[in-house]
Every structure is written in C-alpha cells, then in structure tokens.
Amino acid sequence: MFRFATLPLLAALTLAACVRTEPGDDATVETDTGSEPVETDTGSEPVETDTGMVHTVDCNEGPAEPFYGAYGESSPTTTRTSTDAGIDALIAAAPGDGEDPVEVDLTISGALVTHVAYAGANTPNNYNLIDANDAVNVFGVELDVSLGDTVSMKVTELTNYFGMIEITAAEELSVDSSDNGVYIVDATTAAVAYASEGLLNVRVHGQITSDDEPCGSNNKCYDYLASNGQAFILRVPNNLNGYGNGDCVAVTNPLGQFGGDLQLDVRDFDNITKY
C-alpha cells in the first residue's frame, strides 16, 4: 500500500478519511430584476448546465453512474472472495504498532490482488491482498502482479507500518490465476470501519468540507463528509489540483486510517473525480 505515515484514520470519497468542518461554501447567484442585481444565498455550490440555468447539487446523490476509478476495467464486484488464503494467520503473527519486524514461516495460498500501487507513486512492488477473512499489504516483495490475480507465497517477514500490516519478505512466490473480479465495498450508504474494511477498496461519494492543509511530504489533506454520514481524511498529492471546499467528489480507493481517523489516501488520480 502507500508509503506514508498512515492510516490511523478517513467522506464524499467516503467515508475515507478527512474530518474537520461542516460542509458548506456559500455561493451567490445574481438574479436580473431589471434594475440592481440581487444576491441570493443558495447555501450550496451553483453549477451551470448547458442550458445556461443555475442549479444546486446535492452531493449525497452521487454521480450519474457508479464511479470505480482505476478498478473499472478489472471486473469490479461486490462479492468478496470465499477463499481462505491464510491471511488471518499473518495478522495474528504480526508485530504491534511501533515494534520491530518479525521473522515468520507462514504460507498464503490463493490470495486475491485488489490494489496495485500507481506506477507514478514510485513505490514498486506495493500491492494489497485479500481473502475471505482479512487483508494485508505487500511492500518491497518483487512479483509481477495485476488486479484480479491470485497469488501464493511463503512469508518470511512481517512489518507493522503505523498500524498497517505488511509482508516485507517472502519466497516461493507464484501467480496462480488472473482476471478474477476485484472486490469493491459499496460505502455510499453503509458505514465502514478500519478493523473490518481496512485495505479493502471502498466506493464513496460526498463533499469536501474544508480547505486543504499540508499533511506529510508533498501531500495535502481535506475533510471529507461521505453520503453515508462518515467523515474521512482525503489525502492527495500536492500536484492534484482542481479540488476545493464544497466540491462534490467521488472516490474509490483502499481504506486507510491515520491517528484513528478513516483516511482515503489517493495516489492514482483516476480514483477520484468531481461531479
């Protein structure tokens, strides 16, 4: 997953992760009365359609079509794999937050690749695996994987990276199958939690409710209120522009956390859009 001081935790990219203020950028619309223009407070963001009329947008309604971002071409599904690949044993054996990595001798078999780090993020060999019970990040373990692959490996080292469990050394790696459906959690109405949905891809929509603030090297964060009522930290690179307080935004991204707040740490620009 993402290499950043993370996911202790992340709303309108869901819940995800930014949480600081109430939404609501007041915008004004000029009404031509034939004399002096009168400013009318609409209470939300006006949007011009191709008719030239002005309408307000309810961010809770979401985009016209479900937004799957970079996962849209990978057979997204709301049905989780039924395979027990053994990831829960890894989680049980992992060190606690702040502890040193531990050596293990555990095998996972048939784990599903549901996220591969964006190539531009400069974090190669960084991908997420899930099974019927749990999820884990793989970092620095070289294996040529794609979304929808199932993989097996003998895990030899586990690391706790700010609350995220990582496989940081493994051997006997193999890709067992490809083109399987990529699991997406629909969080547009249902609440999510890091304990149960951490590292899973979640689909959310909602509203940015704050101005951006610096949060880590070359990143900025917004408060985000999702349509399911949850607040997230929405974390994006500094060079992702065009988003601001009051915008309606849809996000599909692995669920993280930072400092106990839910976080959506968007590395791939295809995983976020305005509507």
User: Would you tell me the structural class of the helices and strands?
Assistant: mainly beta
Give the total of beta strands. 18
List SSEs in N-to-C order: EEEEEHEEEEEEHEEEEEEE
CATH class of the largest domain: Mainly Beta
What would the principal axes of the Cα set say about the shape?
globular
- As a percent range, the share of strand residues is 35-45%
How is the main sheet built? 5 strands, mixed, barrel
SS element count, helices: 2
Strand order of the largest sheet: 12-14-15-17-16
How far do the termini sit from each other?
Answer: 27 Å
Cα radius of gyration in angstroms: 20 Å
Mean pLDDT: 84
CATH architecture of the largest domain: Beta Barrel
**Number of separate domains:** 2
What is the helix content?
A: under 10%
**Poorly predicted spans:** 1-55
Briefly note the CATH topology name of the largest domain. Answer: OB fold (Dihydrolipoamide Acetyltransferase, E2P)
